């Protein structure tokens, strides 16, 4: 697994995940939309921790700086 998620990309993914969780627990979002967004948030957190995004790989993109 080649790392392809940069620092700013990680921060944005974590921030979006936190916002979705806060919206869910404050009952601003609910139902199917909440479940879908929470699942997406979980994926964002996992890809941030692993520094790997399969979608970026499929598209041939990388937000990680060249070493």
Task: Report the sheet-strand fraction.
Answer: under 5%
- Class by alpha and beta content: mainly alpha
Whole-angstrom Rg: 13 Å
Largest sheet: none
- Taken together, the total number of domains comes to 1
Count of DSSP H/I helices: 3
In helices, the fraction of residues equals 55-70%
Provide the descriptors you would attach to this structure in a database record.
single chain; 67 residues; mainly alpha; 3 helices; 67% helix; elongated
Characterise the protein shown here:
The chain has three helices and no strands. With 67 residues, it is an all-alpha fold. The chain has one domain (7-59). The two termini are 16 Å apart. It is 67% helix and 0% strand.
Brief overview:
The protein contains three helices and no strands. It has 67 residues and is mostly helical.
Spell out the blueprint of helices and strands.
Layout: H1 7-25, H2 31-50, H3 54-59
Helix pairs in contact: 1-2
């Amino acid at each position: 697994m080649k790392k392809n998620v940069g620092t700013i990309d990680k921060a944005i993914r974590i921030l979006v995940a936190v916002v979705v969780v806060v919206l869910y627990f404050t009952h601003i979002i609910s139902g199917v939309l909440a479940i879908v967004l929470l699942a997406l948030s979980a994926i964002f957190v996992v890809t941030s921790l692993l520094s790997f995004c399969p979608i970026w790989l499929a598209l041939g993109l990388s937000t990680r700086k060249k070493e």
